[in-house]
Design goal:
5 strands, about 160 residues, single chain, five-stranded mixed sheet, alpha+beta
Length: about 160
C-alpha cells in the first residue's frame, strides 16, 4: 500500500510492513466508515492469503504463538482502516478493540493473547493507540483460526 505519513514511517521503524487488505471470506466489507469512525470486520491472522497456524489456544497453539497472531490481526486491521481512509495519519485514536480467542476448554489467558494486538497498536500509534477492549474466549473461529480481532477507530475531525 502506498503512503508515507508518520504512521507508515513508524511501521517501517518497527520493521513492520502493512499487508494488503485481506479479502472478505463472506458477504461483508473489510472496513466501513461511518462519520468520523471506521469499523473493521473481524480480522484473522492471514499472511499472504493463508493462516500460518490453526487450532485452539491452550491445545494446538501456545499462548505466545497466539499473541503473535493477534499482532498480525492488528496489522490486518490497520490495513483495512487504510483501505477506507487512504492515510493512517487520519486516526485520532483507537476507540475499541474486540479480540476473540479460540480456546481450549481450560484456557483462561485470553487477555494476554489479545495484548498482542493492543501492544502493537500502542507501539505504532503511541497515545492514539490506547483503547477500551474486550478479550473473549470462543469455541471456534472461521477457518479454525486461533484469534480474530476487530478495531474501531475515530478519525481526526474534518477527515
Amino acid at each position: 500500500m502506498s503512503g508515507g505519513g508518520a504512521v507508515d514511517a513508524r511501521l517501517a521503524e518497527l520493521g513492520l510492513t502493512l499487508p494488503e487488505v485481506v479479502p472478505p471470506l463472506a458477504a461483508y466489507q473489510p472496513a466501513v466508515r461511518s462519520g468520523v469512525y471506521v469499523y473493521t470486520a473481524g480480522q484473522l491472522p492471514m499472511v499472504d492469503g493463508k493462516l500460518p497456524v490453526t487450532g485452539k489456544v491452550g491445545a494446538e497453539v501456545t499462548a505466545e504463538e497466539a499473541k503473535a497472531l493477534a499482532q498480525t490481526c492488528a496489522l490486518n486491521a490497520l490495513a483495512a482502516v487504510k483501505s477506507v481512509t487512504g492515510d493512517l495519519d487520519l486516526i485520532a485514536r483507537v476507540v475499541k478493540v474486540v479480540g476473540f480467542v479460540a480456546s481450549a476448554s481450560d484456557f483462561t489467558g485470553q487477555p494476554g493473547v489479545i495484548n498482542g494486538a493492543s501492544e502493537l497498536l500502542g507501539e505504532v500509534l503511541g497515545e492514539k493507540g490506547v483503547h477500551a477492549r474486550s478479550a473473549v474466549g470462543v469455541a471456534v473461529l472461521p477457518l479454525d483460526a486461533p484469534v480474530e480481532v476487530e478495531v474501531q477507530v475515530e478519525l481526526v475531525s474534518g477527515a
